[in-house]
RNA sequence: UCCGAAGUAGCUCAGUUGGUUAGAGCAUCUGACUGUUAAUCAGAGGGUCGCAGGUUCAAGUCCUGCCUUCGGAGCCA
């Protein structure tokens, strides 16, 4: 195999001659000296080209290089005279391609322009750092599951039925079988897996055709969904807490360099420790009312009205989540939700049938809901009546009801949206930076 | 879907109460500079002012419609 050198490991080669294969990130000239910034995907290193130390051809080659031109550079690694980093004293260059005028210049750009050039934007230092953190989060998720006895049990992306109502599904024709929908969750299938393996998870893209245009929504996003037999809601919350702490610790430990590039305040992440506060929906409403945060509702005439106190039974909006979370330095778990605000499969609390044993985990620093979980309804009759209440087609759920006919057990699970976790850990303003090619309501290219 | 804002050079923007040939920085090209850090300095090229109508002696600027994008709300992970 050909010997390969990479910029992130360049400190091992001080005083030695190396070959860097990559792209020109930027170049500064100063008379008989040039300072090309070389990028190879693992990092950036400054080159030093001195006219009196290189051939005329090398000097002329560098003069014609443009931003993002591809090249192979041979040189000697040395300590930077002013900074705590290394530089490459260039001896030779092989120009692979001189790039056309590169659209993403070192100055500011608007978000529309950057989004249109996402295929090039991903080369920039900030974007590569985000994608590295994303990778670490995903690897940490899978490692946690593997190390704790979960079996990977992936669910289909084409599904014949909706799990949480029909308004938010993408549909397509499926041969002679009518419509197929893109999955909005793999949970129902994961429940089948939990009855086979005890503890499973699925992990893949999910799709929601919600016409929501916010900094937190994608139409295509990745979700990890663990599902566990013989877990009640409290076991579920124990697991969620342990899982999130593990992921945050991994990112702090393994992606320090990227967090620094992103200028992330790491002390905020180091505060994410067990135990997370656990408060009921009722207690959350009390906090909201103590802070006098109203529910804003649209009126028939198009105007808005502010309702105080917060009416029991309503789901929380962003200001309510913020009110609940702002006093804490770590994620907050809100559980025992009003049943009408939540999905049909959540188990009713035997002590209070008005609430279900569902839990939302709200991230600190205003990042909102990152996890939604619940204990599942394990009683056949109650589940059937809930499907009827939600006006869902009973026949589509035949196989799912079988899980309650053949060895039904108490079980729980949750779903964690990867992009929202990436946003939180990287402190991003918008989910569009949390995935290489975001799909948004108003954008599906490049 | 609703509310709000914006579209002027490849990019980011300025453009006054409507008034000569629409400007700046970056990028590109030419040149200067042996330690630059979004380098700097001198010069050059680069425009269907989103689209379509309208008002006016005169429209980037005022009016109407449309398109696109951005921000927010609701819903959610």
Give a description of the structure.
The chain is α+β, with helices and mostly antiparallel strands and 446 residues long. Helix content is 29%, strand content 28%. The protein is built from 13 helices and 19 strands. The chain has helices spanning 56-63, 111-116, 118-121, 125-147, 187-197, 233-254, 256-261, 266-270, 281-290, 318-325, 380-389, 398-405, 418-426, and strands at 17-30, 33-39, 44-50, 70-79, 86-97, 151-152, 158-159, 171-173, 179-182, 199-207, 220-229, 278-280, 295-298, 304-307, 332-338, 348-349, 352-363, 368-375, 411-417. Strands 6, 10, 11, 12, 15, 16, 17, 18 and 19 form a nine-stranded mixed beta sheet that branches. A five-stranded mixed β-barrel has the order 1-2-3-5-4. α4 crosses α6 (233-254) and α4 (125-147) crosses α13 (418-426). It is elongated. The model has no long low-confidence stretch (mean pLDDT 91). It binds one RNA strand of 77 nucleotides through β1, β2, β3, α2 and β11.
Q: How large is the radius of gyration?
A: 27 Å
Q: Calculate the terminal CA-CA distance, rounded to whole Å.
A: 35 Å
Relative helix content:
25-40%
Instruction: Kindly report the average pLDDT value.
Output: 91
Q: Please provide the count of β strands.
A: 19
Sheet with the most strands, sense and barrel status: 9 strands, mixed
Number of helices: 13
Detail the poorly predicted runs. Answer: none
| Strand proportion | 25-35%
Structural class: alpha+beta
The general outline is elongated
């Amino acid at each position: 195999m050909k010997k390969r050198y990479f910029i992130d490991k360049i400190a091992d080669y001080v005083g030695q001659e190396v070959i860097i294969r990559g792209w020109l990130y930027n170049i500064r000239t100063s008379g008989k000296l040039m300072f090309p910034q070389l990028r190879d995907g693992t990092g950036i290193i400054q080159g030093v080209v001195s006219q009196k130390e290189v051939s005329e051809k090398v000097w002329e080659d560098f003069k014609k290089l443009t931003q993002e031109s591809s090249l192979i550079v041979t040189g000697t690694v040395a300590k930077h005279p002013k900074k705590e980093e290394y530089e490459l004293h260039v001896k030779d260059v092989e120009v692979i391609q001189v790039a056309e005028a590169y659209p993403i210049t070192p100055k500011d750009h608007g978000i529309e322009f950057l989004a249109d050039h996402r295929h090039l934007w991903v080369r920039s230092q900030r974007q590569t750092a985000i994608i590295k953190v994303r990778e670490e989060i995903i690897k940490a998720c899978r490692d946690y599951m593997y190390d704790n006895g979960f079996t990977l049990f992936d669910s289909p992306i084409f599904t014949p039925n909706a799990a949480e109502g029909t308004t938010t599904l993408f549909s397509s024709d499926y041969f002679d079988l009518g419509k197929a929908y893109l999955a909005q969750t793999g949970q129902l299938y994961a429940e089948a897996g939990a009855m086979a393996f005890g503890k499973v998870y699925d992990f893949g893209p999910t799709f929601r055709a919600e016409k929501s245009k916010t900094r937190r929504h994608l139409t295509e996003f990745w979700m990890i969904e663990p599902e566990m037999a013989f877990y009640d809601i409290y076991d579920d919350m124990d697991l969620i807490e342990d899982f999130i702490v593990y992921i945050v610790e991994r990112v702090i430990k393994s992606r320090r360099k990227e967090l620094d590039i992103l200028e992330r305040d790491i002390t905020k992440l180091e505060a994410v420790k067990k135990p997370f506060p656990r408060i009921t929906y009722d207690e959350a409403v009390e906090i909201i009312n103590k802070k006098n945060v109203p529910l804003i509702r649209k009126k028939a005439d198009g105007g808005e009205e502010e309702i105080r106190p917060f009416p029991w039974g309503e789901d929380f909006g962003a200001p309510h989540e913020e009110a609940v979370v702002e006093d804490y330095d770590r994620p907050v778990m809100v559980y025992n939700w009003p049943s009408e605000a939540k999905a049909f499969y959540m188990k009713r609390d035997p002590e209070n049938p008005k609430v279900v044993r569902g839990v939302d985990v709200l991230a600190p620093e205003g990042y909102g809901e990152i996890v939604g979980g619940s204990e599942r309804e394990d009683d056949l009759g109650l589940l059937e009546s809930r499907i009827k209440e939600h006006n869902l087609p009973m026949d589509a759920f035949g196989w799912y009801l079988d899980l309650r006919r053949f060895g039904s057990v108490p079980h729980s699970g949750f779903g964690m949206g990867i992009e929202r976790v990436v946003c939180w850990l990287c402190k991003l303003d918008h989910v569009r930076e949390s995935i290489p090619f975001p799909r948004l309501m108003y954008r599906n290219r490049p």
